[in-house]
Amino acid sequence: MFLMRVALPDRPGSLGAVASIVGTVGGDIHAVEVVGRQDGYAIDDFMLALPPGTMPDELVSACTALEDVRVLWFSRYPEGEGLEADIETLERMTAAPDTAPEILAGAAPSVFHCEWALLADRSESVVRYATEMAPDLTAETLQLLGPFDDIGTRELLEGWLPDWGEAVVAVAPVRDNLALIVGRQGGPSFLPSELARIRHLAAMAG
User: Fold this and answer.
1) Do the bridges between strand 28-38 and strand 2-9 make them parallel or antiparallel, or are there none, so unpaired?
2) Whether 202 contacts 174, CB under 8 Å
3) Which residues form the ACT domain (predicted)?
4) Peptide bond into 188 cis (omega under 30)
């Protein structure tokens, strides 16, 4: 499974044109989600599968051949993961308020389209919860990602951890000195609309 982020003109027919291109290379679209709008463009995430033998570069080249269409990001997406909506996560947090921070962190890769997430204790600089693909962070490394008292992003250069490449993370405070940290390997940067969603859900988890 792959996740492709595309900037396309915010006008009728643009989404259909990209979907048609995916079909021409044999791709199977599982879900599409609008994640933002800016400067006359819509930013859409496509979760899709490609047939054996089809290279991602082939699809990227075909999409960028369309007028005013840019592929911002293309990467593998964990098998079995869906695109969970904010409201679904909020409903689950409301049903179990005592574990709302853990529910949010566990859902974060699906909700915010990233590879990993964790909950860090801001006062003790320790990880309290981490998803399967999250890095093993020491207290020293956690401090590099701070401060955690407001929503923000960090760009991490290759080698920020041994054998780890470049990454982009977003951090947001939650309750009880907890901070939510979500990470993307290689990008793309978190959009203002995504940061607003992260802030909102983190506040609701608190």
Assistant:
1) unpaired
2) yes
3) 3-83
4) yes
